[in-house]
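Slide 14.
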Amino acid sequence: MSPLPTLRPYQARIGRAVLESVLHHKGLTFTVEIARQGGKNEISALLEVFLLATHRRSGGDLVKCAPTFVPQVLISKRRLADRLADAGLWPLVRPEGAHILRLGRARQVFLSCEAGAHIVGHTASLLLEVDEAQEVDAEKFTKEVRPMGSAHGVTTVLYGTPWDGNTLLEQVKALNLELERRDGIPRHFRVDWEEVASCNPAYAQYVEAERQRLGQDHPLFRTQYRLLPVQGGGGLFSRPLLAMLEGEHSRLRSPQPGKAYVAGIDVGGEAWQAPQGPAPTRHDATVVSIGELDFSPCDDLHPEPLVRIVEHYWWQGEAHHNLFPRLVDLLKRVWRCRRVVIDATGIGAGLASLLVKSLGEGVVRPFLFTSPRKARLGFDLLSAVGAGRLKAYARDGSPECQAFWREMEQAEARYLPGGRMDFFVDPRKGHDDFLVSTALLVQASSYLPRVARGYTPERIGAVR
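Slide 15: predicted structure.
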């Protein structure tokens, strides 16, 4: 039998507080924020092992909820099974269906808090836990989860990380901090990445690499490692980020020998105008952003290349059948792009399909916008800028350059439940064609596998 893991000081501090509440029937509610991969799930699993083992004769139910059954509930169930095995107790465990583990007369019940999940009727008599509580709907928790512990005045623990200041976790956290102020009983525990790193040098190295990759104020680094909420809505790029986007390289009109190029394309609408009709209003533009990839900074910790925006093309209201041959010429003959990512949502679907047929599936990747995919697009764009991995050509006063910077400066972010975000330019201020094209360019920049040592940028640029 392998020994149970040794808890770090901050884990032991949290575990003792929860157990004291359970064993002395205090019925406290705790909120626990620990930096990502800092060991919060280990605390939960070991609490469950202890309570199942000590109540296997007297009986009692523990309930743990998570935002989804697959994969979150299943991950928690698997971790508990591993810890029971470590303690030599697994041969005594009897599973009941897909969501219950029984040890003697004590049971651990796992439930999903998804919108359609029917969980009313379960009772928690020993411990009630909510994992990733920032992703759980506050109304569902209040109506369906919280009452599970009411009959026994059960101790409740909500685990997670901050998001926008309005999640279930942050609401309960605010109440806990106020109660702490009144009676001095610790109810909220916060362990940021630096405290975790003080106990684990390997973790410190990993998170430092993440900070370099994402940037200090990237929403994901800010919330998951620094444990600070995002700053509501407002500008997508701060002034320091806009300064980091500024490059010193010159704009190019044609490719340089031995270099690799990629492109991001945002597809705009077509202008339809009667021969004697009024002039058309400004339409969304079709914008092509060309990026040159520099692999020289790449290593095992930083596999992504530097992306230099070297050229912009744009057309407003241009018919797609006229654009198609121009795009083929630019992407295939002029720049010989290794990867092209194009908006294929709605009006872009037809043009994307034609480019796939002409340039090949290995080169052209249509991008279908959904809320989760756009969120990932925005996060990746922010990380590329924040890590200094995306640079725009030096300002040249051209209409394209002015439009690009106007959109970068006017870009806004709206943070949504579930750790998602939206990014856009307010339609009252202008369009977001260059913004979206740039985000798609970042996606195109990851077209190559990780760079092998000794594989020079020149050789990569020569790959077809």
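Speaker note: The first strand starts at residue 29 and ends at 34.
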